[in-house]
Design brief:
single chain; mainly beta; Pectate Lyase C-like; 13-stranded mixed beta sheet; about 5% helix; about 30% strand; globular; secreted; Pectin_lyas_fold; Right-handed parallel beta-helix repeat-containing protein; lyase; calcium
């Protein structure tokens, strides 16, 4: 992935003629203009073709809502925007009604990202980004983004990416990211979600399912500000499903650093299982990472690997991991975890994982499951 070189703000206006052209050409309705007539105050654009999607995406300005009708869209160039919304006039890209929308990158040139936003206050929801030659969806130096109920699947690098300095106050909610694989690097880079090469506070990931990716479920490599992760699952990452004879995928569930950054990320009420390396790992991050009430089960290496930093682990549960429950360094603090003396390991109600990648619940909630639940109010993930 190309590294960010800092935050570059570029803003633009939409002329009256251009606004009308977008609205009419893409089947939309122009709702109004600002007092000075220089830009659209609120434009709703309903698209039903790839050409109209490309046009609406490129021309969006503050207040624009793009509604995408059900179907599969195959752009021939990256969907790209540098436009900013505002807190009161967001730019919204969403499915029309309950329609299933797939934005498919199979027609893109080699090495292309499928969708790329370098702007603030976007809401992107209810869409699938799939089959990109490289990254599926990338937000660079985004402020106040809401990325809700998305799927990023079978892309040629990481499914979903936040990157760049000034990446601040973003919410990634109920993301499914799976099957991503970078053939050119033999699986070394393709994560479910990557928050990499940047900085910025207030970023939160909740309700994610990150599975069957070539590299890691979550990767926070060289992101130098704290990221909060909660109520998320990472499983089956790092397996060579692509019959790559030189496969190099790592296979951590939650990789919480690397590349020299020392930062206090936080992971709460999440679970990692059946990954080919560690369930949760600092990955050389020496910061005061906080892990509370997480579960690691049947990962090939350690459930929790925090051997060099100042992490604090409380009320975590590790069962059936290949090389041990936890590997901790002298500066790591562990309290009320099931590897501590006197802490009992409650039995799981179920170790049958067949329902975990099934349909989500109302509003995009994780599916209800007994898998890895214990009924304990004191230790391990609640799995919800």
């Amino acid at each position: 992935m190309r590294q960010s070189i800092g935050r570059h703000r570029r803003t633009g206006t939409l002329s009256i003629a251009a606004a009308v052209a977008v609205a009419s050409g893409a089947g939309g309705v122009l709702l109004g203009l600002s007092n000075d007539g220089a830009r659209a105050a609120g434009t709703t654009v309903t698209v039903s073709s790839t050409a109209s999607l490309e046009s609406a995406f490129a021309r969006a300005t503050a207040g624009t809502t793009i509604k995408v009708r059900a179907g599969t869209y195959r752009p021939t160039r990256t969907l790209k925007s540098t436009a900013d919304g505002t807190p009161s006039a967001r730019i919204t890209l969403t499915a029309y009604g309950d329609g299933k929308v797939r934005i498919d990158g199979s027609a893109l040139p080699a090495g292309s990202w499928l969708a790329a936003i370098h702007g603030d206050h976007w809401t992107v929801s209810g869409l699938t980004f799939q089959n990109s030659p490289a990254q599926g969806f990338v937000a660079t130096s985004s402020v106040g983004g809401i990325f809700d109920n998305l799927v990023t699947a079978d892309n040629g690098d990481s499914g979903f990416t936040l990157r760049g300095d000034g990446t601040t106050g973003n919410l990634v909610r109920n993301l499914d990211s799976h099957g991503n694989y970078d053939a050119a690097n033999h699986g070394q880079n393709a994560d479910g979600i990557a928050v990499k090469f940047g900085s910025g506070t207030g970023n939160r990931i909740t309700g994610a399912r990150l599975y069957d990716n070539a590299d890691d479920g979550l990767d926070l490599w060289q992101f130098s500000s704290p990221v909060t992760v909660e109520h998320s699952w990472a499983f089956g990452n790092g397996r060579n499903r692509w019959n790559d004879s030189a496969f190099r995928g790592n296979g951590n569930g939650f990789k919480l650093g690397g590349g020299g950054a020392s930062v206090a990320h936080s992971v709460h009420d999440s679970a990692a299982w059946a990954n080919t390396l560690h369930g949760f790992t600092e990955n050389s991050n020496t910061g005061a990472i906080r892990l509370h009430r997480n579960t690691a089960y049947a990962n090939r290496a350690d459930g929790f690997y925090f051997a060099t930093g100042k992490a604090r682990l409380t009320r975590n549960l590790a069962v059936g991991n290949g090389t041990g429950k936890a590997r901790l360094g002298p500066r790591t603090v562990s309290a009320d975890d099931n590897w501590n003396s006197g802490v009992a390991t409650p039995p799981f109600r179920s170790t049958d994982a067949r329902a975990v990648d099934g349909p989500r619940g109302r509003g995009g909630a994780l599916p209800v499951t007994a898998f890895l639940t214990t009924g304990s109010t004191a230790i391990g993930s609640t799995m919800r």
